[in-house]
Design goal:
single chain; about 230 residues; alpha/beta; TIM Barrel; 7 helices; about 20% strand
């Protein structure tokens, strides 16, 4: 079952050009089975999400992307923004209290090395990124981001492997051209938010690159000193 865990629509995400209806219809055309509405520091009202899902006869689930001091975090299971959530520890407390789940979005941001062809710099950057305090609260890292470059997603993949953490995939859609580039494939069917959270917690999923780009880092080449 393919679900896009990371999308944005207007007007709730100020930087998106997508309407919710456009996102859903195009996601259906791309062969997806569901989408999560993860607006920036904002949550949809559950009733509005349910109405949208019913109108399109499609799985639409509420989520959110919270801007914290330690990076952007996708959250599932809470529906209200509370001051203090910009601190990852406080955000985690709210999510934990709601029995929700957390995924670190586009972990390559501000964490990739400046000199990517240096094995030493790359390894040091991975080690620093792994110490990000938010990750101790996360159930997964976003291994593939639909708007990330190949090298950016390679860094995220390497970080997942370095930390031994599962990886998700989300388009981070802001425009029509973003939709359908990637998604997270779940081993079991997901019918609602509770089931999504359960599957994220259980790790029964894998990122899928629907565009066919090579997002997996060749660690053998890296260790031998070859350029990425």
């Amino acid at each position: 079952m393919l679900i896009d865990l990371h999308t944005h629509t207007r007007p709730l995400s100020w930087d998106s050009y997508l309407t919710p209806d456009d996102l859903i219809e195009r996601s259906k055309q791309a062969g997806l089975d569901g989408v999560c509405l993860s607006e920036h520091d904002y949550f949809w009202k559950p009733a509005d999400v349910a109405a949208l899902a019913k109108r399109h006869n499609f799985l639409v689930l509420p989520a959110g992307e919270i801007n914290t001091d330690d990076g952007h975090i996708l959250v599932y299971g809470i529906d209200t923004y509370v001051y203090g959530m910009h601190r990852s520890s406080e955000l985690a407390a709210h999510v934990r209290g709601a029995h929700g789940a957390m995924v670190a979005a586009h972990p390559y941001r501000r964490q990739m090395p400046w000199y990517q062809d240096s094995t030493q710099d790359y390894g040091d950057a991975l080690a620093r990124a792994a110490r990000n305090p938010a990750y101790q609260y996360c159930d997964a890292l976003e291994r593939i981001n639909g708007r990330g470059t190949v090298k950016e997603n390679q860094f995220s993949a390497a970080l997942c492997d370095h930390m031994g953490m599962p990886g998700t995939a989300g388009t981070d859609s802001h425009s029509r051209s973003d939709i359908g580039r990637c998604a997270t494939r779940f081993e079991r069917d997901v019918h609602d938010l509770d089931e999504l959270i359960s599957e994220l917690k259980a790790g029964r999923f894998a990122p899928e690159d629907l565009a066919g780009a090579p997002h997996r880092l060749d660690l053998t080449a890296l260790s031998s000193g070859e350029h990425l």
